[in-house]
Amino acid sequence: MIAASDLRKGMILDLNGTLYRVTNTQYNNPGRGAASMRAQLMDIRTEQTQFKVFSAEESLNNVFVQTEPVKYLYRDGNLLVFMNTETYDQYEVSAGLFGDDALYLREDMDLQLMVNEGGMVLDYELPKTVVYTVAEAEVAVVGNTAGSVNKRVKTDTGLSVTVPAFVNTGDQIKVDTRDGSYVSRA
C-alpha cells in the first residue's frame, strides 16, 4: 500500500481487481482544502486510459513487479516479440503498451520488461540513449543563422527527430529515449 501522494509514472496499481499503469500524475495542493493527486491510468488489459483523482492521503494497492532483461526480436502485426536474455523465455506484448515509444525499438535492442507473477508484461524501461541511422533528411534552409539552424529527420525505425543542419541521410545519430531529443552524432 502506498499513499496517493507518492504515485509516480510507471507504477502499477490494483484498483478493484483491475491492473492499471500510471502514465502521468499531477499533484494539486490548493491554499485551502485537501491536497489531491490527479493520475492518468491505463488499463493494462484493454489499453484504455482514464483520469482519476485521489485524495493525497488515500492508500492505494500497488503491485510489485519483477524486472527482466530482454532483447527486442521483431514486430508481428500489433505484437512486439521479446526474449529474456537469461531464461530465453519469449514474451508477446501488444504494441499499444508501448504507444509511440514503439518507434524507439530496434532489432536486438536490450531493454527491461516489468513482469508480474503470472508472466504478464506490465511495463518497460528503454535504454537512455539509442543510436539510429538517418533514413530521410530535410534540406537545411540557409539564411537566418543568428540562432541555431535545425531540421527534421526520420530514422530507420520511423522516428522523427529535430537535429542540427549538418546531419544528413545515412548519418548515425544518438537519440535520448526519454524525450526524443538529438544528443550527438554516433
Q: Can you summarize this structure?
A:
This protein has 186 residues and is mainly β. It has three domains: 2-60, SH3 type barrels; 66-125, Beta Barrel (OB fold (Dihydrolipoamide Acetyltransferase, E2P)); 129-185, Nucleic acid-binding proteins (OB fold (Dihydrolipoamide Acetyltransferase, E2P)), CATH 2.40.50.140. Helices cover 2% and strands 52% of the residues.
List the helices and strands and how they pair.
Elements (H helix, E strand, L loop, with lengths): L1 E2 L8 E4 L2 E11 L7 E8 L5 E7 L3 E2 L5 E11 L2 E6 L5 E5 H4 L11 E6 L5 E5 L3 E9 L12 E6 L4 E5 L7 E5 L4 E5 L1
Antiparallel strand pairs: 1-6, 2-3, 3-4, 4-5, 7-8, 7-10, 8-9, 10-11, 12-13, 12-15, 13-14, 15-16
Structure description:
This protein is mainly β. It folds into 3 domains: 59 residues, Roll (SH3 type barrels), CATH 2.30.30; 60 residues, Beta Barrel (OB fold (Dihydrolipoamide Acetyltransferase, E2P)); 57 residues, Beta Barrel (OB fold (Dihydrolipoamide Acetyltransferase, E2P)). It contains 1 helix and 16 strands. It has a 5-stranded antiparallel beta sheet with strand order 9-8-7-10-11. Strands 14-13-12-15-16 form a 5-stranded antiparallel beta sheet, with no helix packed on it. A 4-stranded antiparallel beta sheet has the order 2-3-4-5, with no helix packed on it. The longest helix is centred in the middle third of the chain and has 4 residues.
